[in-house]
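Quick illustration, no need to memorize.
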Amino acid sequence: MTQFNKTALAAAAGIAAMVGAGQQAAAQDLAGKTVEFVIPFSESGGSARWANFYAPLLSEALPGNPTVVVRYRPGGGSTTGANWFQEQTTNDGTLIFGTSGSTQFPYLLGDPLVRYEYQDWIPVLASGTGGVSYLPSSLEDKWDGTANQLTEEFFLYGSQGATSLDLVPILAYDLLGLTVDPVFGVEGRGDGRLMFERGEANIDYQTSSAYIRSVQPMVDSGLAFPIFSWGSLDAEGNIVRDPTFPDMPSFKEVCEATEACSTEGVEWDAFKAFFVAGFPAQKLVYLPGNAPQEIVDMYNKAFNDIIARPDFAELAAAELGVYPQLTGDAARRAHEQATTISPEAKQYVLDWLNERFQISFN
């Protein structure tokens, strides 16, 4: 090869490298752009508060400080929005999607409404959360830390659907021996709370962020009282008290103290499997599966920078509770935990859904 050819090739390589670097820099500069943070829920629930908590922080952390806007696509217990996201090919970093247990459960159960595939998406954040179940103050005299005196009561519960995140509370109430009639069709947990406030329901639960903001005022004014949190997981995978509500018993404690409930056997194993998918690894942020690595890296860095903020712990505690916020490999592990389930636990819940609600996916 002549010296001229070598020089020409070197120059061409240099130009290509500069072009590639320029394209990558451009891809990582979102100045003047709008990032849509889509969630498959209404604007009144815990997922909305979670997304709106992160939106302004992302605007500060992403290169170019784009405007980050939360968009709502409720319906089908969140499957409508997830099915929509599955079809999206926007890969320039201007579209992210937030899921919750209500999105994961139909996927785990093989719901025919599901046309999305979690394994096609790229996780960039996993947020653990908790939840609190509560009753109207008129029943407080019957609550002694167990459900033993409530088995003769009739409860109405506003629900997004038996295969949504509401599977966890409905199954838990059944394990406690309570008679709970779910009123299906609400679009988000916030709508279930509104039913409780209007007296149309007399048992409810909210995720931690929604409980802190919207239910605690009812408790403070004497209109409601908490009965338990769902709990959290320790390093060994045991259910322990929720760190956001350390003075509140976990569901496991209440179950152990209630005559009709047991923390052993396939029923408990099934509850715990869905509890893990629905709470410790509940909320995840995804990029479309075709997003290039530089966009993935950009979001990993942005979320890492957010979590490293000196004021983040205080901000998060006030809005989300005290839960892990995971990125990178940790987010991917949480994604795997939230989207897999043992065959035995799955079959138990499928049988329960069929017997309790005549829901079958065959």
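The domain at 32-128+279-338 is CATH 3.40.190.150 (D-Maltodextrin-Binding Protein; domain 2).
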